[in-house]
């Protein structure tokens, strides 16, 4: 994705018609997804089978997507990250997957499904498809390596007005917990929560802008407005494609974060249920792993797909094991998530 295209995408995402189909194609399947995942190479077998892509509508944040679905926006499948699944379940918006209709189900990495939120006696509620890292992206020509050896770069006064954080409560709290010594967000005390909130308030003072989409983060850095960002893999991929001097520090002293995303099957989808499964099967095909890696920089949930790309530099640099703490963004207490979300909104507002 070139930054010229990224700028156009930002403009499209900024319009009030966000929940309208941004890419209208096959009318029998509507996918509510993160911007950038409409690239055909990620689900090419679906196009080969049906002659067109699904109709896509886009969002930039998991909580925003849930609110729109809960308010009545119609889609057949949605692409949340794993910590959101309980909200969809509790609201009665999704139904279990028929795993017998998923060709590669037995090849999915079991580590990505190791949660009762995802899989229980009632069925499989979430099909993991992609996973990635959240870490420090930085301008290697402007930022010395020693400055990104610690997450304190986000509170360093030398970078006042030169940092960007995601407008995503999950990712900023993962950062704040790591920075204050917490690597398991499934068991957070009130004292740990307050320490992380205090750190976030300090980091907020350095923020030039909160990015709502990886392409926006890439544009902020490419323009020279920002030199350091808390970034997903895709923001780094976009910058690399435009020859921007970007580093991705996953081994800061305090660590970095990881996440798992996938698809939930909407209970009252208006489209074709057969095409829902055709789309998921296309996504999970082993050959789709290379397209996902090249386009977004993420890992694939199909172990056979990962075998095909395991020697790619992007896997080694952006997804491989690290010698540092790791906070996995696994499903956590929904009440804790709501508390974090509310506190983050206060922090962004300057309170």
From TrEMBL:
Signal peptide: 1-24
Broad class of the protein's primary localization: periplasm
GO MF entries: polyamine binding
Subcellular localization: Periplasm
GO annotation (BP), single: polyamine transport
Family annotation (Gene3D superfamilies): Periplasmic binding protein-like II
Superkingdom per UniProt: Bacteria
Transport in keyword set: yes
Protein name as annotated: Spermidine/putrescine transport system substrate-binding protein
Organism from which the protein derives: Paracoccus isoporae
């Amino acid at each position: 994705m070139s930054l010229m295209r990224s700028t156009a995408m930002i403009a499209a995402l900024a319009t009030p018609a966000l929940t309208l189909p941004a890419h209208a194609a096959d009318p029998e399947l509507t996918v509510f997804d993160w911007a950038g995942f409409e690239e055909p190479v990620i689900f090419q077998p679906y196009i080969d089978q049906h002659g067109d892509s699904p109709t896509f509508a886009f969002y930039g944040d998991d909580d925003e997507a849930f609110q729109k679905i809960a308010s009545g926006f119609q889609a057949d499948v949605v692409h949340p990250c794993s910590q959101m699944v309980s909200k969809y379940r509790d609201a009665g918006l999704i139904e279990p997957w028929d795993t017998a209709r998923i060709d590669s189900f037995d090849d999915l990495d079991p580590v990505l499904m190791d949660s009762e939120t995802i899989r229980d006696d009632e069925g499989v509620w979430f099909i993991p498809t992609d996973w990635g890292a959240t870490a420090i992206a930085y301008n290697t020509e402007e930022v010395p390596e020693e400055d990104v050896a610690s997450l304190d770069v986000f509170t360093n006064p030398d970078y006042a007005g030169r940092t960007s954080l995601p407008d995503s409560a999950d990712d900023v709290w993962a950062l704040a917990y790591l920075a204050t010594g917490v690597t398991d967000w499934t068991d957070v005390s009130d004292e740990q929560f307050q320490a992380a909130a205090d750190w976030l308030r300090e980091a907020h003072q350095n923020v030039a802008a909160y990015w709502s989409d990886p392409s926006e983060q890439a544009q902020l850095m490419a323009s020279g407005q920002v030199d350091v960002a808390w970034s997903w893999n895709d923001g780094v991929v976009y910058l690399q494609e435009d020859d921007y001097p970007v580093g991705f520090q996953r081994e800061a002293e305090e660590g970095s974060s990881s996440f798992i995303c996938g698809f939930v099957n909407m209970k009252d989808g208006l489209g074709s249920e057969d095409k829902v499964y055709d789309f998921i099967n296309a996504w999970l095909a082993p050959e789709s792993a290379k397209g996902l890696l090249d386009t977004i920089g993420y890992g694939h949930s199909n172990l056979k797909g990962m075998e095909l790309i395991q020697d790619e530099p992007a896997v080694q640099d952006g997804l491989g094991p690290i010698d540092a703490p790791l906070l996995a963004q696994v499903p956590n207490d929904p009440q804790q998530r709501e508390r974090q979300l509310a506190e983050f909104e206060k922090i962004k507002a300057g309170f």
